[in-house]
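Suppose you are handed a protein chain with no further information: no name, no annotation, nothing but its sequence. What can you learn? This example shows the usual starting point.
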Amino acid sequence: MRAWADKLKSIGKQLAEQLRKTRLRRLLMLPVLAALLAPASAFLWFAFSGQISQAKPPLKLPEEEAGLILRVGGDILLAGAMETYIANKGPDFPFRRVSDLFSAADFSYAGLKAPLADTGSPLPGKPLTLRAAPETVEALALSGLSLMALASGHIMDFDEPALDQTISLLDGAGLGYMGAGEDAEAAAKPYTVSRQGLRVALLDFCESADVFYSYQYPRTLAAGENKAGVAALREEDVLKAIASALLGHDLVVLNLHWGEEYYANISPGHRELAHRFIDGGADVIVGHHSRGLQGVEIYNNGLIVYSLGDLVCGESVSGQSKETTILELELTALGIKSARLYPVLLSAEGRPEPATGRPAADIMARIRALSAGFNAGLTADGDTLKISR
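A reasonable first move is to predict its three-dimensional structure. Written in structure tokens, the prediction is:
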């Protein structure tokens, strides 16, 4: 009898440790744990109840959990032709067809590709520098979005003065921001979204942050100890930021500006890195920058959307770069309750319009093809693509 109890105790400790590592996101593990421990619950309680209580407060059933609806869009570029459209057709023009989708969520965000500024100087040697007029912030104020992810390869195109002005304009419009700031600590700081006790950390990092373009002015995009800039996508730093965010949040959503432009396939290096971030505690990874769609993966009960595509584009768009998506997540303290993608097409002017019928079906079919072998269940639900394990 004692040997049997010891064996149960050992199994229980192993399961508890696994639950602690994954922060109890696996609701399906609870019946297994209960079945194993019930015969000797009194004996085993003192052995490992402390580990569970330190990992997460008592669990509730999914239907009792307060859900938070989060919607996420890809890159927004208001410079170039879009700046002219805004001036001629009104500040609501870029988001006229999708603002209701964003405003209907509890919280929503997208990536801001370039600064909104009329100050600063172009980074020497950078082959392409982008900047939109300060007045275009009115378009963002009418977008239905709540926050801008600033960790991009162009947000520092006109150096620190333009970044400072952008942040000031966002503040004035009542919009939050993440992924950039006055120093490295501020840039990597999580943005907290909360609802009825649920706390979700949003983090934002840029892969190209450590690049510089001129030896005469070797200024990278990355924020430093006493230098403004973006949060650099360095594996060790991202893992530290995830671990730190988990101390005060239930879930972590990691936004990554990464990948090659116009490249639909995911490199083995990016996939391995995404897996390490999920293993490190991230619940969701959302990518953008590739100027098009990439696959969706379920890994270790975490969700990886490798690229959403562009949301608003001030440059010419054609072919598959017209296809984009908006991600919807329903989050609870137990993890991801549901997830789906809304197919979207960019018009000739580069503005997003929800896709329906055959165009929506074509986008969903393309995402399924790009996600082959990625362990994600992808099924059409009307004109949306439902994601499941």
